[in-house]
Design goal:
The chain is an alpha+beta fold and about 400 residues long. Helices cover about 20% and strands about 30% of the residues. The strands form 8 sheets. It has a 6-stranded mixed β-sheet with strand order 7-4-6-5-9-8, with no helix packed on it. Strands 16-13-17-20-19-18 form a 6-stranded mixed β-sheet, sandwiched between helices. A 5-stranded mixed beta barrel has the order 21-24-23-25-27. The protein is elongated. Bound molecules: adenosine monophosphate and magnesium ion.
Length: about 400
């Protein structure tokens, strides 16, 4: 049986980022990866720009910091200066306005006093040439690359792209993820339960995880444990970039998923990983390259396997250069008796405090116990074996996004 790390490597080896598309820069592409280098179409600032409200002056007029100068005009942001400053002249200027020709410094308004005769009295330290002026092109030059391919489109990137005049860009699109829940016993929430039935928790949970990962969820519904019906939904799901199934991948009489996937032309890359919960997890690729994940039906198994395998796959397909999350370690808050033959992903509460990160496993009944998981904000990874894990020992932790 392969390890979690090996299984992740198999997935990432098989997958490549989706083909870029030219997309409008709307909130729909927030968090997507840029697929081109974006160059500026302008010098920024486009002119020598005042960085303070005050007076544009010639520093030569203020050798000792003091002078009374004739105010020739007022320049607000968005205006163009009408005249060059001559000797003995100043212009009232506002932050963001172009500095007039002839001026080489801006004196802050705090060091000035406007006189009634239209002059201004200045009393400051002797200004240095360039003081309070951002020269043209200091931030960026026309033609300069301001964002590289691979950059993640966060709020600052949106602002920067607008700065350089972009309304669209080449972007790796959000993967489309088809989701199928399998099981004769399942009914959707809102349905009255008949004997033997349970509600489908994995459908809504997986849709939520896909959306949280910034991808497009296409929920295809519940497949009965019936080969024909399952095959039909699998064929539909194979049209997406990713197909996620829950249930039906273990060794039960009605665990039809691996067989049906094979019939549908899915090549299996692994089935079973040394982990708890989630051991029966399946990964393959479909005829069109669709990444196919068969997650075990127990809800916590489904969530853990999504976190460990599906999320990195979605990041990789989405063009993220770092598909795997950075490793986080935390100290066990209290002694904890642990027994398992496999590495265990135990629901836990991760807390940051002045003395670092602490992690506390929550009481958990195992893979069906979604109630425990809903109280957790992380998974703590315990190694196989049986022993008392001591408070203060350090373990890997996987934070769960909220
Ligand atoms: P399976 O992987 O199909 O053998 O299912 C394992 C366990 O998870 C069984 O107890 C199922 O009833 C349960 N299960 C499977 N699918 C779901 C689901 N979508 N929602 C809640 N429980 C499920
Ligand atoms: Mg089942």
């Amino acid at each position: 049986m392969i390890s979690v790390a090996e299984a992740r490597a198999v997935i990432l080896e098989r997958l490549r980022p989706l083909s870029p598309e030219t997309l409008p820069l709307t909130p729909a592409v927030l968090g997507r990866a840029l697929a081109e280098d974006v160059a500026s179409d302008l010098d920024l600032p486009p002119f020598d720009k005042a960085m303070m409200d005050g007076y544009a002056v010639r520093s030569g007029d203020l050798r000792d910091g003091k002078a009374t100068l004739a105010v020739v005009e007022e320049i607000t942001a968005g205006r163009t200066p009408r005249q060059a400053l001559g000797q003995g002249q100043a212009a009232r200027i506002m932050t963001g306005a172009p500095v007039p020709a002839g001026a080489d410094a801006v004196v802050m308004v705090e060091y000035t006093q406007a006189l009634e005769d239209g002059r201004v009295a200045i009393e400051d330290k002797p200004p240095k040439a360039g003081q309070n002026i951002m020269p043209r092109g200091k931030e960026m030059r026309s033609g300069e690359v301001v964002l590289n391919a691979g950059a993640v489109l966060g709020p600052a990137a949106f602002g920067l792209l607008a700065t350089v005049g972009r309304t669209e860009a080449r972007i790796v699109p959000a993967p489309r993820v088809a989701i199928i829940a399998t099981g004769d016993e399942l009914v959707e929430a809102g349905t009255k339960l008949q004997s033997g039935q349970i509600r489908n928790s994995n459908g809504p949970m997986l849709v939520a995880m896909v959306c949280q990962a910034g991808c497009r969820a296409e929920y295809l519904g519940i497949a009965r444990d019936d080969a024909e019906r399952l095959r039909k939904l699998v064929d539909d799901g194979l049209q997406a970039d990713v197909l996620v199934l829950s249930g039906g991948v273990s060794a039960g009489a009605l665990d039809l998923v691996p067989g049906i996937l094979e019939q549908a032309g899915v090549e299996a890359h692994f089935h079973r990983v040394a982990m708890k919960p989630g051991k029966p997890v399946f990964f393959g690729t479909g005829p069109r390259g669709t990444a196919v994940f068969g997650l075990p039906g127990n809800p916590v198994s489904s969530l853990v396997c999504f976190e460990l395998f599906v999320r990195p796959a979605l990041r990789c397909l989405g063009g993220r250069t770092e598909a795997l999350p950075p490793a986080i370690r935390a100290k066990l808050a209290e002694d904890f008796r642990h027994r398992s033959d496999r590495p265990t992903y135990h629901p836990a509460v991760l807390e940051e405090s002045a003395d670092g990160r602490g992690v506390q496993p929550v009481a958990w009944l195992g893979s069906p116990d979604l109630k425990a998981l809903a109280r957790a904000n992380a998974l703590v990874v315990f190694p196989p074996g049986e022993r008392m894990l001591a408070a203060g020992e350090v373990f890997d932790v996987i934070p769960l996004a909220d």
